[in-house]
Amino acid sequence: MRLQPVKDLKLTRVIEPAEEKAYIEVPFVMPEGIERIKVEYWIAEQGGEQHVVDLGIRDMKRVRGWSGGARPGFEIGPETATPGYLAGGLAAGEWAVLLGAYRIGPSGCRVELAVELTPETGRWLKGELHAHTDHSDGAYSLSAAVELAELGGLDFLALTDHNTVSQNLTRPRGDGGCGRKGEGGRGDGIGSRGDDADGSEHDGDEDIGRGADGGEDGADGGDGRNGLVLIPAMELTTNYGHCNFYGVDEPVTDFRAESPEQVRLLMQQAKERGAYVSLNHPHCRSCGWLWGFDAAYDWVELWNGPWREDNQATLDWWQEQLASGRRLTAIGGSDFHRDHPFIRHGMPCTWVYAESRSARGILEAIGQGHASLSYAPDAPRLELDAGAYMMGDTIPRETVFPQQMNVQIKVHGCLNEGDKLRLLTDRGLEAEWPVEATYPLATHELVAHGLVTYPLAAHELATTDPLAESGISPKTVGFPEEAGLRSDPPCYLWQTELKERLFYRVELWRRFAETDTLLLAAATNPLYIR
């Protein structure tokens, strides 16, 4: 989805002959919440004279790039930038386009600037949070793994090699710092949050990205390749369990841990450096988490690789944790190492509703629980919301009761005959209903909305007896309330009145021909009521 620019500035600067060889600033105000800036410039010739004017930009603290007269413009985003410019956050304040008056003719010249500012806007992104390369025991090089993920249509990829961070320091591009907002990283110039390579401090919103190998961040000045966001990560791999650290290049200095106390210290060190911590395949029979669940972790890898009994054990445990009143975000990851018929990047797929297409934006969204899981990138995706609240949010009890408030279940994608949609709360399974026919999503009619075209769903689901008894009514939804909202039609929708519960969550189960077994196909994180 292409985001609409919030503001298209037209700036003009007349350069007099006496200003030749001067560096000139053309100031403008960077508003809050801008994700990407694009600048183009033209030199209006006068009297047939030839002028040479160089181009660059500064923010409030530093020069963010300089291309001289080599380019007609540039772009800067959170993850990528035109060569010669530094990717990273675009902090609000007074910025300035820099003009270098290298050669100015006797009549002077007029420079015209077009500044396009694109806002941070919520959007669904899909990706992989657990994958390996040849920086540990994976079969693919980093660049090959990136290419596979891009070919699979993913938006983000976490590099989780075992007990090493070299994959983070040699990744093709990255924002060089995407851990928890407001928490410092290392100051040793490896691209972590907190300090720049020269040791000078920047606040969390202004971290500058770079490829640690000095590579270019998107040679075309756009998103680079297909815009894959690379998330720095590491899998802490011990003899009694694994966990992933997300968001900083070097979450720990030494991975070696042989006791529960040492493991807890490493997890705490990673969090202090800005990392998010997730327990990996905690109930795996060969390498489950045996260090105890009182450690300092943020998320749990509910779904690791193909759905199997080990994942089911984690799902049951997670349900118990939620029913006890705990908030705990579930994620998934393929644990991809090498070619396998049922293990690919994005199988399972983690869907995230992020405010920006950046590693930091993705991780912050997961931290808020704004995520759901599906068995593949092109599989059905579930959403759960109630009014302005979505999965991961907490609805105040006084907002729900005694007023009537409905919870909505949305299914984006094709529903197959035999699928089962399940609604669960702290009381367990509250409703289950089968899909009695296959409902492909027709696109017989298109509705243009801004720059995005939304296909309309064409079928109505039959209301079954269990569905009617639960008070849930299904209907199809054709197009979103407004462009860019998290409803991403076509989709099917159910809704029911919220009751006295601690949380609501939804699962979709499907019978797969490969196993002739009913397996989890999609799941949401909870919508909490407190």
Provide structural commentary.
- This protein has a 15-stranded mixed sheet that branches.
- It is built from seven helices and 32 strands.
- The chain has helices at 142-151, 166-169, 260-272, 309-323, 359-367, 397-400, 465-470; strands at residues 7-15, 23-30, 34-44, 52-58, 63-68, 73-76, 87-88, 93-103, 109-119, 123-131, 156-159, 208-209, 229-238, 241-246, 276-279, 299-304, 329-333, 349-354, 371-374, 381-386, 389-390, 394-395, 406-412, 420-425, 428-434, 446-449, 452-455, 473-477, 491-497, 503-512, 517-524, 527-529.
- The longest helix has 15 residues, at 309-323.
Protein topology:
Blueprint (H helix, E strand, L loop, with lengths): L6 E9 L7 E8 L3 E11 L7 E7 L4 E6 L4 E4 L10 E2 L4 E11 L5 E11 L3 E9 L10 H10 L4 E4 L6 H4 L38 E2 L19 E10 L2 E6 L13 H13 L3 E4 L19 E6 L4 H15 L5 E5 L15 E6 L4 H9 L3 E4 L6 E6 L2 E2 L3 E2 L1 H4 L5 E7 L7 E6 L2 E7 L11 E4 L2 E4 L9 H6 L2 E5 L13 E7 L5 E10 L4 E8 L2 E3 L1
Parallel strand pairs: 10-11, 11-13, 15-16, 16-17, 22-32
Antiparallel strand pairs: 1-9, 2-8, 3-6, 3-9, 4-5, 4-8, 7-12, 10-18, 13-14, 14-15, 18-19, 19-31, 20-21, 20-23, 23-29, 24-25, 24-30, 26-27, 28-29, 30-31, 30-32
Entry summary:
By secondary structure, this protein is mainly β.
Which term fits the overall shape?
A: globular
The largest sheet is: 15 strands, mixed
Mean pLDDT across residues: 82
Secondary structure tally: strands: 32
- Binned, the helix content reads 10-25%
Estimated structural class? mainly beta
User: Counting H and I runs of at least 4 residues, what is the number of helices?
Assistant: 7
